[in-house]
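Team,

Forwarding the record for the chain on the shared tracking sheet. I've put the sequence and predicted structure together so nobody has to dig through attachments.
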Amino acid sequence: MSTLSIKSSNHHQAKPNYIVHYGSRGLRSDIDRISNLDEALGFYKQMVRMRPVPSVVHFNRLLGRIVKMKQYLVVLSLSRDMAELGCIPLDDYTLSIVINCYCFLGRMDFGFSIFGGFFKRGILPDTATFNTLLKGLFWEHKIHEAQGLFKKIIYEKLCVPNKITYGTVIDGLSKAGNTSMAIQVLRFMEKGGRCRPHAAAYSTIIDGLCKDKMMDQALSLLHEMIEKGIAPNVITYNCLVRGLCNLSKWKDVEKLLTEMKAYNIVPDVITFNILIDALCKEGQLEGAEEVLKIMIEQNQKPDNATYSALMDGYCLQGRMDEAKIVFDKMAANGLNPDVQSHSILINGYMKKMKVEAAMSLFQEI
């Protein structure tokens, strides 16, 4: 049966191998145990056959479970079926789930059509709904429309913006390269105690400033965070480390790593990969190998990106034997070399005119 054509007339065909409990607590527990789509669809069929039909709250919980499976089209199909049945009054949470699915599918035009349904049903959209609309617009790179909606939310008091609202707008503006506007939103957020900024909002702006090579402003924002008692995290420092590495400011990088230690922030795989990649590009392969050693000592498991960066460094220097040793280490350490890993080595072999070795690797792919 197609999951996109689920109709109430098919409910009697369900032959599930588990029991749906009556009662609120039992239903919640059963829904939370669902592990795959077939179970979810069978469960839905049983729920609509129950008398009385369970509350829309339980249907929303089930839809939310299917969203986590990334089965967005199925959620849309089930929500249509619920509307057609007429015995399950869809609420604001149901409609927000539907809008969220359209957001993930890149169809905010349909999302806004559903948004219009709020008013037809006499339902007032809440902050979560507006957050979803903002997220969807930014994902579709409709920056102007997202800014317009945000201004309406503020000036027309459509809802009470929360940390997610501000965070969504700051993230969207920063990723669109409009860091200065993102900073304005951060300042507006702080003004009058509207909402206390969080580490994620600062980290997003810091990342944008680093990409724009505005390191002084990025470091200044880090110190502002600390002064305000907003604890930076490893993501914040990774943005700064990457920005400083790209500018070869190694002394500043060392200073940041020392600062991380002082704040008990443990470097993660991404931190080490940034350092290894930057050192390899600088031709400092011995330094990169030393960082890899420290990484392993600190129980951070190297991944494909770690080994690919090292291989690229050796290939850039024409040291193909050492690059191949790194490549073989990946498999020895339980990793599957991906297309990028193969491509780095193939490119290195071709530059050294080792066509046979390059073609052998190409056959592996």
